[in-house]
């Protein structure tokens, strides 16, 4: 589900649309549950936290500003904050705290993974706005690392033409990403 679709569902939830809320829950609950589970490390607590998250989403959907950021980031922040609040409310057990410091997780957090996926989708959408040969040239230059000369040879255009294609394509991509 795209960011725009999630933002639209949130705007419908803000006006009390129960069907939109059900769709939003169905589409986003696995991610939000995983955020809560990662923080709380207990499935029952994570499920209760996720339930509270959706109560807050229902109550606060009206304050979500679609232009201020990715809706999935907003949802992830609510889940993260709810899970942290539950953690703080618990009475810490010394053994659990000692063990927590010994664990290291190098993987990006679910929130960061969600933001990365959203950005990837935005880039893909913007790449689709480019002409097919320009998009292919951009991918080969900046993802595969091909030189301008290699690309010029492959596309049968002069070197300066390839440079112009890439420069203009990057400007179009930047424009699209800023929208």
Automatic annotation (TrEMBL):
Gene3D superfamilies noted in UniProt: 1.10.1740.10, Winged helix-like DNA-binding domain superfamily/Winged helix DNA-binding domain (1.10.10.10)
InterPro entries for this protein: RNA_pol_sigma-70-like, RNA_pol_sigma-70_dom, RNA_pol_sigma70_r2, RNA_pol_sigma70_r4_t2, RNA_pol_sigma_r2, RNA_pol_sigma_r3/r4-like, WH-like_DNA-bd_sf
Keyword Transcription regulation among UniProt keywords: yes
A Pfam family hit: Sigma70_r2
Record flagged with keyword Cell division: no
Key words of the record: Sigma factor, Transcription, Transcription regulation
BP GO annotations: DNA-templated transcription initiation
Domain RNA polymerase sigma-70 region: 24-91
Domain RNA polymerase sigma factor 70 region 4 type: 121-173
Example of a GO MF term: DNA binding
Family classification: Belongs to the sigma-70 factor family. ECF subfamily.
Protein name: RNA polymerase subunit sigma
Taxonomic lineage from the root: Bacteria, Pseudomonadati, Pseudomonadota, Alphaproteobacteria, Hyphomicrobiales
């Amino acid at each position: 589900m795209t960011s725009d679709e999630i933002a639209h569902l949130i705007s419908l939830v803000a006006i009390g649309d129960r069907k939109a809320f059900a769709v939003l829950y169905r589409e986003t609950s696995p991610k939000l549950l995983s955020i809560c589970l990662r923080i709380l490390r207990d499935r029952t607590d994570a499920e209760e936290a996720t339930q509270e998250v959706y109560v807050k989403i229902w109550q606060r959907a009206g304050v979500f500003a679609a232009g201020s950021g990715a809706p999935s980031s907003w949802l992830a922040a609510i889940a993260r904050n709810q899970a942290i609040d539950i953690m703080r409310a618990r009475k810490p057990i010394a053994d659990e705290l000692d063990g927590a410091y010994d664990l290291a997780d190098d993987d990006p957090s679910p929130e960061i993974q969600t933001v990365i996926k959203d950005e990837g989708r935005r880039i893909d959408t913007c790449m689709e706005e480019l002409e097919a040969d320009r998009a292919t040239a951009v991918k080969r230059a900046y993802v595969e690392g091909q030189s301008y000369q290699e690309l010029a040879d492959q596309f049968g255009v002069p070197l300066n033409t390839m440079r112009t294609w890439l420069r203009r394509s990057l400007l179009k991509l930047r424009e699209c990403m800023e929208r």
